[in-house]
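Dig into these lines:

——
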Amino acid sequence: MFMKGGVVVNRKVATWVRVGATLAMFALPLVALALTNPTIPAGIGGRPVTLSEIEDIIRLIAQFLILISVVIAVIVIIWGGIVWMTAGGSDERAKLGKGIILKGIFGAAVILGVGVILQTLAGIVTRQFLQ
């Protein structure tokens, strides 16, 4: 707690008030936009979104996230190798490097397993799995 202008203020409360005020400052315009009813000018139309388009978008997003995750896993494995190589005879640093490498390999295996599961589910949902 600290004194500010003769008033005792708790630092945590003051921080949460600042964070809340900042979030409200950014969120209120979104609420105002949500309340408006946009009108579509005549002559501008569109076609409905199909299930295959949604499937393609989800597949692209999943592939992108898997790719980024694999790149991060490779970076973690390389970082673990660097820690292990620069241990300089320290058993503690060598053990840390080995642990980082193992966690990176485990993470990569989980990511690739999730990718296989997603591809299998996509094949089952689109009924192309058993053809």
